[in-house]
Design brief:
single chain; OB fold (Dihydrolipoamide Acetyltransferase, E2P); 2 domains; 4 helices
Amino acid sequence: MQRILRSPKSKWITGLLALLLSTAGAANSSKRSSKRPEPVDVSMVALLAVPEKYDGKYVRTNAFLCLEFEGNALYLHEEDYRYRMTRNALWIDLSKSQEQQFKNLSLGHVLVEGVMVANRMDLFSGMITHVSRLEAWPVYGQR
């Protein structure tokens, strides 16, 4: 049996490679575990009709967004906003920085992802909190 002699330098390189590979594997697994689950696609109608079914779930929906003092909300329709039909709306819980970031989306249709909270508030039928995505929903046929 032939014995392979390794220099101290090759042992060091082998050890370093093993350490780098194990660190990369741990980093990838931590990214996967901290990644938010895929949101449940749900209509505003369903969120308003049976909010308890989605309570605590990460959801994605489309709505008419209004950002105003003490009135940040997602409405089922623009007309619901105009006539202040708040039972057809969910409060949207945004930080001050998010309000500033998304104020240009106010009074338009949006796609939103966040956590549904089913408790019926005084005016609104529930709340979307922990908003992780909020973007304009394009008008069909326009670019």
